[in-house]
Amino acid sequence: MRIAKRLNQAQTMLVAAGREASSAEWLLMHVLQVDRTGLLVRLSDELSPDDDLLFSEYLLAHVNGVPVQHLIGYQPFYGRDFQVTPAVLIPRPETEELIEFVVRRLGGETFHPGEIVDIGTGSGAIGVTLALELRQPVTTVDISEDALAVAKKNQAALGGDVTFLQGDLLEPLADQSVRVLVSNPPYIEEDELLSDVVFDHEPHLALFGGKDGLVFYRRLIDGSTRILKDDFRLIVFEIGHNQGSEVQMMLKERYPTAETGILKDINGKDRIVYAERKDCTE
């Protein structure tokens, strides 16, 4: 069967099962070991029986809930491929907007080792990307040893000056040592319904943030007074779409002289809350 026809069949199958049609392309590219351009060039070719069998196995697994990223082994993020496993949260495109904001705010500034920290690093997508884009050292923290193993592999493959610490949120960090605090903590409310692809295959440790989804923001903001330097530069959190005002209020109450704000993502939903001190750069 020609690749184009097989791809069309697969897309129809996925849509009927409630999955994204685009997943068929990702799986077929992985089977054929080509990028999207390579796939388009080969659409008129015949799909070999062995490749067809492997493609069918991947499709069935995805229909049954296994994320595409776990089947192909990686997720593109900010122009780089990050290895993912069931031990880490799969990086989302919305988080790239957090990277853009931090780079826009801090680009050109110089920081000492330990002054930029990424809490709950997971795959290392935020920490490694910031280290590469800012060309500055970044320290990352995660409570999961398995997650840190994935993050270390990504740093080894992609580069960046990154230090990895294991511990519970801010616990491994020294007093008065941090100037930039970045985190995409677990923020899903405990009774929120998730798709089976997410609920059954991504770590609940990285998803759920207590009854109201705000447990980790409270802990991070309360604990930040210990680890932040007096001339801290920036605090940035990714948030759930309905949590912006509450997290911003927490930051305002803790840091009344800092500028705080809420940024919307490309879909018009609240996505980033920040507190920034600009006086320390003047």
From TrEMBL:
It is an enzyme of class 2 (transferase). NCBIfam families: hemK_fam (TIGR00536), RF_mod_PrmC (TIGR03534). Residues 112-194 form the Methyltransferase small domain. Its EC number is 2.1.1.297. The keyword Kinase does not apply. S-adenosyl-L-methionine binds at G120, T121, G122, S123, G124, D142, N184. Residues 7-73 form the Release factor glutamine methyltransferase N-terminal domain. Substrate binds at N184, P185, P186, Y187. Methylates the class 1 translation termination release factors RF1/PrfA and RF2/PrfB on the glutamine residue of the universally conserved GGQ motif. The keyword S-adenosyl-L-methionine applies. It comes from Exiguobacterium oxidotolerans. This is Release factor glutamine methyltransferase. Gene3D superfamilies: DNA helicase RuvA subunit, C-terminal domain (1.10.8.10), Vaccinia Virus protein VP39 (3.40.50.150).
